[in-house]
Amino acid sequence: MNKPIAYLILIIAIVVTLPIFFITIPLLIILYNGLVKKRNHVAFSFSGVDVALQNRGELIPNLVASVKAYMFHEKSTLHDITALRNKLLEVDPQSSKRFGMENELTGLLKNLMVTVESYPDLKASENMLHLQRSLNEMEEKISASRRAYNAAVMNLNNAIETFPSNVMASVYNFKMSPFFKADESARAVPILKEGFNK
After folding, report:
1. Cβ neighbours of residue 172 under 8 Å, at least 6 residues apart?
2. pLDDT in tens, the chain (198 residues)
3. What distance in Å separates the CA atoms of residue 125 and residue 162, rounded to the nearest whole number?
């Protein structure tokens, strides 16, 4: 092979392979890093939800202890709250089962707070007022954390399902994350007529 033909082959090889190194490889790196960042953001957001849920879990024994002396008729509700709190400690933190159980616990706590209204002495107790304020603050933090988590999950799930990042997601086995969803009782429309009939 003569020298000019060798140079020509070398130049053609460089022209053909350069785009692979200067376009394709950086694109693949950017896509992979973007998926990793989104997955890590989901984990970070979930840790915020988890911390808020754990803080609420720590309030529950104090709440149950304060209410127990007054509420003889609601022992089953208190038992359900305590039992559900204990079950939550055994469930995988990022499972949809845990999300459902947390929603169930939220419903039970709301029912308990409504029931507290029937006990004027308990409702006026300084300890109970403090617990109610703390529980309301925790519910607000949980709600904000859930919104941040769901936004992070949406970004990750969109990246996993849309082209071209879905190719990298399939190759590296990125999984869709579950959303925190409201349970059916939270979707029910409250009946207000009882409050207006007084």
Report:
1. 32, 35
2. 677 887 788 788 778 887 777 888 888 899 999 999 999 999 999 999 888 888 888 877 777 777 766 666 566 777 788 788 888 778 877 777 887 888 888 888 887 777 777 777 666 667 777 777 888 888 899 889 999 999 999 999 999 999 888 888 888 889 999 888 765 554 444 443 443 343
3. 55
Residues in the chain: 198
Residue 13 in domain: no
Give me the domain span that covers residue 158.
49-196
Q: Is residue 15 part of a domain?
A: no
Q: Which two tokens stand for residue 58?
A: 């720590």
Q: Which amino acid is present at 2?
A: N
Q: Name which of 49, 66, 46 is nearest 132 in CA terms.
A: 66
Give how far the C-alpha of residue 96 lies from the chain's centroid of Cα atoms, to the nearest Å: 9
Count of CA atoms in the C-beta half-sphere (13 A) of 145: 20
What is the number of structural domains in the chain? 1
Instruction: Give the integer Cα–Cα distance in Å for 175 and 97.
Output: 17
Residue with tokens 């092979």: 1
Is 18 within the bounds of a domain? Answer: no
What DSSP string runs through 124-140?
H-HHHHHHHHHHHHHHH
Structure tokens at 93: 């933190």
Domain assignment present for residue 9? The answer is no
User: Within 13 Å, how many C-alpha atoms sit on residue 179's CB side?
Assistant: 10
